[in-house]
UniProtKB/TrEMBL annotation:
Summary of subunit composition and partner proteins: Homodimer.
Catalytic activity: (6R)-5,10-methylene-5,6,7,8-tetrahydrofolate + NADP(+) = (6R)-5,10-methenyltetrahydrofolate + NADPH; (6R)-5,10-methenyltetrahydrofolate + H2O = (6R)-10-formyltetrahydrofolate + H(+)
Entry keywords, A to Z: Amino-acid biosynthesis, Histidine biosynthesis, Hydrolase, Methionine biosynthesis, Multifunctional enzyme, NADP, One-carbon metabolism, Oxidoreductase, Purine biosynthesis
Species for this entry: Caballeronia mineralivorans PML1(12)
Pathway note: One-carbon metabolism; tetrahydrofolate interconversion
Domain named Tetrahydrofolate dehydrogenase/cyclohydrolase NAD(P)-binding: residues: 139-280
Matching InterPro entries: Aminoacid_DH-like_N_sf (IPR046346), NAD(P)-bd_dom_sf (IPR036291), THF_DH/CycHdrlase (IPR000672), THF_DH/CycHdrlase_cat_dom (IPR020630), THF_DH/CycHdrlase_CS (IPR020867), THF_DH/CycHdrlase_NAD-bd_dom (IPR020631)
GO molecular function, one term: methenyltetrahydrofolate cyclohydrolase activity
Binding site for NADP(+): 165-167, 231
Record family assignment: Belongs to the tetrahydrofolate dehydrogenase/cyclohydrolase family.
NCBIfam families membership: PRK10792.1, PRK14186.1
Protein name: Bifunctional protein FolD
Its EC number(s): 1.5.1.5, 3.5.4.9
Length: 287
């Protein structure tokens, strides 16, 4: 039996309708949630991602502010801009689109964003707070993955979850969030010996390695839930994930497609975090 497909687009669409209602409530109380997006340089992929984020803001009624800087912008210019946005009461969330030009220290930029406006969840406070489950804003992609897993109805507690990929943006925070849900968690990375030995025992397999076709059917446990975070562009222009979708779907119980799985949820969680930031003011309610 083929796996059931977890439709990230459908879930994201439903959540955005709900979030638009929350924004309308805030507006009635005189608060318009605002997201400032800082983009540096002219990377085509970054431009695409930013357009998608601004479109999502428009759908939900969130005001967006785009600050586009040239590729030769200095670190001081970026930090000064972030300082201004930190102090701007109309801005509830700040997103700096990655990657950044080499002359700019990514860590210093992310640490400069005010913790209560770090809607990407990349500030050291938010990342570190995941260890005790008290981050102000969970990182968008791992949080989106968590909601996708919840769509399956399986109980994560006690299950073996394997995360392939140990990045600071997805892999590590994802592992911490699964651990918070009382899963038994294994993290695999580029130096892991015999990857299949670990993945074959996973009840929940989250793959975020950036390698097309890395996970093939013989590496997946019968009935596993498989979440593919990878987004890879092949030479022919086709977008694929890290999982052999057609092969693995015959062994998994649930699987996410690429595109249409995790991607829409990442953007939607950004909107969610921005609204929550606005609701830290004395108005509205939000779940």
């Amino acid at each position: 039996m083929s796996a059931r497909v977890i439709d990230g687009r459908a879930l994201a669409t439903g959540l955005r309708v709900k979030y638009a209602e929350s924004v309308a409530e805030l507006v009635r109380n005189g608060i318009v949630p605002g997201l400032a997006v800082v983009m540096i340089g002219s990377d085509p992929a970054s431009h695409l991602y930013v357009r998608n984020k601004i479109r999502a803001c428009d759908e939900c009624g969130v005001r967006s502010f785009l600050h586009a800087l040239s590729a030769d912008a200095t670190e001081a210019e970026v930090l000064d801009l972030i300082g201004e946005l930190n102090a701007d009461p109309s801005v509830h969330g700040i997103l700096v689109q990655l990657p950044l030009p080499p002359q700019i220290d990514v860590r210093r930029v992310l640490e400069t964003i005010a913790v209560d406006k770090d809607v990407d969840g990349f500030h050291l406070y938010n990342v570190g707070a995941l260890t005790v489950g008290e981050s102000i804003f969970p990182p968008c992609t791992p949080y989106g993955v968590q909601l996708l897993i919840d769509q399956t109805g399986i109980e994560i507690e006690g299950k073996h979850a394997v995360v392939v990929g140990a990045s600071n943006i997805v892999g590590k925070p994802m592992a911490l969030m699964l651990l918070q849900r009382l899963a038994t968690v294994t993290i695999c990375h580029a130096r892991t010996v015999n990857l299949a030995h670990h993945t074959i025992s996973a009840d929940v397999l989250v793959v975020a390695a950036g390698k097309p076709g890395l996970i093939v059917p013989q590496m997946v446990k019968q009935g596993a839930v498989v979440i593919d975070v990878g987004i890879n562009k092949l030479a022919d222009g086709k977008i694929v994930g890290d999982v052999d979708f057609e092969g693995v779907r015959d062994k998994a119980s649930w699987i996410t497609p690429v595109p249409g799985g995790v991607g829409p949820m990442t953007v939607t969680m950004l909107i969610r975090n921005t609204i929550r930031s606005a609701q830290r003011l004395p108005a509205g309610s939000f779940d």
